[in-house]
Design goal:
This protein has 16 helices and no strands. The protein has about 500 residues and is mainly alpha-helical. It is globular and about 65 Å long.
Length: about 500
């Protein structure tokens, strides 16, 4: 299978390159998927759910870990931030892996890495080893996300992609949402190590099942790996997120925050320039011609903003519930469960609505609801009734459920076949960098605001939480504006793809 170049000067439109047909793929008719295809997608969905669950499983555990490992909140949040940052660094490389290797070895490598990282975390004697295990976990997780998305785009016809992407939304959004619930239940009776001990046999079972049943469905081809691009992406994304995290440390930071932020931005600029040059010969690590699609670009922007708000909320809200409201980890986890369940229930429905009506009818109200919930969180205090917090959390996740499926389906569906693996890598990278930045930004703002003089330590903590949510609420307005620009993708003949 060859990888064709887009014509020079291609503008921001959602079309297949002029004069070129999409790369042939083994796509079934618009009816039911073949049994093999259902097996592949089902196995990938289940496995990805397990690995993504671990992105936010540390949220509720943070106060316990701070006490057990004698670390600060800023250091502890790196157990989540480093996970997402590692994914952001590794995901661009998966574009190379998915072109060079068959589906089966890529899946086995991903689940093996995740299982080994989980084992390291379970046996970790201290913070350093635990952090290293999280990085290994994240490496396996990073491979699973683009593998799942690229496989779905290959096997599922456009008229049914909304429904299948709805299931992917359950994996990508619901799994992180219920991570705090699961960790809260475990921590109510067991040591923090059991968060990993419980996950390990599930991961090993998925690995064993995949080793037995996963077929090869792709056509590998020779693809070069540009090592310099990998180094530049790691330094660029790492610098930005590290800089955000050190703002909250103030004078205690090893280096002033502006230094890693500046270096990260500069290196990312070099990364973009190198990809622009390499993509002319189809050698880019991350092909940025995906952004020649207006729909893909706007969908990616709205996704980044939404994920920033989601992951910032997932790390700050448990701290508010425990440090301000005085709830224990179990009560905190249970309170966060309904939001995740709402997303799970709505995701398939949203997928069917997308197939019939397109993205706009879902995205516009969804982004408005998310923004309204975040503005509501800016009013929390030491006396806010817990049921109101629960209601705001459920409303937030209902809005997010309306957002993710249209963004994934419209954004990736707007790309020609030969750019699907790169588009999946771009989406995954943006998602993880935005999530890491959201976690770092919310914690930083909360830490700075909580340092201001207050009547009590609890009042100071509440003030910090309000400031963090105010930051997220302002950012959410960008998603509302961008939602109007995401349109249903057009097919190669310029006709809008619609369900029949």
């Amino acid at each position: 299978m060859t990888n064709r170049s887009l014509p020079a000067g291609t503008g921001p439109v959602d079309i297949v390159p002029a004069g070129a047909a999409p790369v042939p793929a083994a796509v079934p008719p618009a009816g039911d998927l073949a049994a093999r295809d259902r097996l592949v997608i089902g196995l990938l969905l289940a496995s990805t759910f397990v690995v993504i669950l671990n992105e936010t499983i540390m949220g509720v555990a943070l106060p316990r870990l701070m006490e057990s490992l004698q670390i600060t909140a800023v250091a502890g949040q790196w157990l989540t931030t480093a996970f997402m940052l590692t994914m952001a660094v590794v995901i661009p490389v998966t574009g190379f892996l998915l072109q060079r290797l068959d589906t089966r070895p890529v899946f086995l490598a991903a689940m093996s890495l995740f299982s080994f990282g989980t084992l390291v975390c379970a046996a970790a004697p201290g913070f350093g080893t635990l952090l290293a295990g999280r990085v290994v976990q994240a490496t396996g997780t990073a491979i699973m996300l683009p593998l799942l998305m690229t496989t779905v785009l290959t096997l599922v016809p456009p008229t049914r992609q909304g429904r299948v992407m709805g299931n992917i939304s359950i994996v990508i959004s619901v799994a992180p949402a219920i991570g705090p619930t699961i960790s809260g239940i475990i921590l109510s009776a067991l040591d923090w190590r059991w968060m990993f001990i419980v996950v390990l046999p599930v991961a090993l079972a998925a690995l064993a099942l995949g080793a037995r049943l996963m077929p090869n469905i792709t056509e590998p081809r020779a693809a070069p790996l540009d090592v310099l691009s990998v180094v530049l992406s790691a330094l660029g994304f790492g610098g930005l997120v590290y800089g955000l995290s050190t703002i909250g440390e103030g004078a205690a930071a090893a280096v002033p925050a502006w230094l890693p932020l500046g270096v990260g931005a500069a290196v990312l600029g070099l990364f973009v320039l190198r990809q622009t040059r390499l993509q002319r010969a189809d050698r880019a690590l991350l092909d940025l011609r995906t952004f020649s699609s207006r729909t893909f670009t706007m969908a990616t922007v709205v996704l980044g903003v939404s994920v920033t708000a989601l992951f910032g909320t997932l790390i700050v809200l448990p701290l508010y519930l425990q440090n301000v409201q005085g709830l224990d980890p179990l009560a905190t986890g249970l309170l966060l469960l309904p939001g995740g369940l709402v997303m799970g229930v709505l995701a398939p429905v949203v997928g069917r609505v997308y197939d019939r009506a397109g993205p706009t009818v879902l995205l516009v109200p969804g982004t408005v609801v998310v923004s309204a919930a975040l503005w509501g969180f800016t009013l929390v205090s030491t006396t806010t009734p817990v049921p109101l917090v629960l209601l705001a959390h459920v409303v937030l996740h209902a809005g997010l459920a309306l957002i993710f499926t249209p963004l994934f389906t419209a954004g990736l569906g707007a790309l020609p076949q030969e750019l699907h693996s790169h588009g999946s890598a771009v989406v995954g990278t943006v998602q993880q960098v935005a999530g890491a930045a959201g976690a770092a930004l919310f914690i930083t703002v909360m830490t700075l605001a909580a340092a201001e003089p207050a009547a009590s330590e609890v009042e100071a903590a509440a003030a910090g939480v309000r400031a963090a949510f105010l930051c997220g609420a302002v950012i959410s307005l960008l998603a509302v504006a961008g939602s109007f620009w995401v349109r249903r993708p057009a097919g190669p003949d310029g006709v809008l793809v619609a369900a029949h």
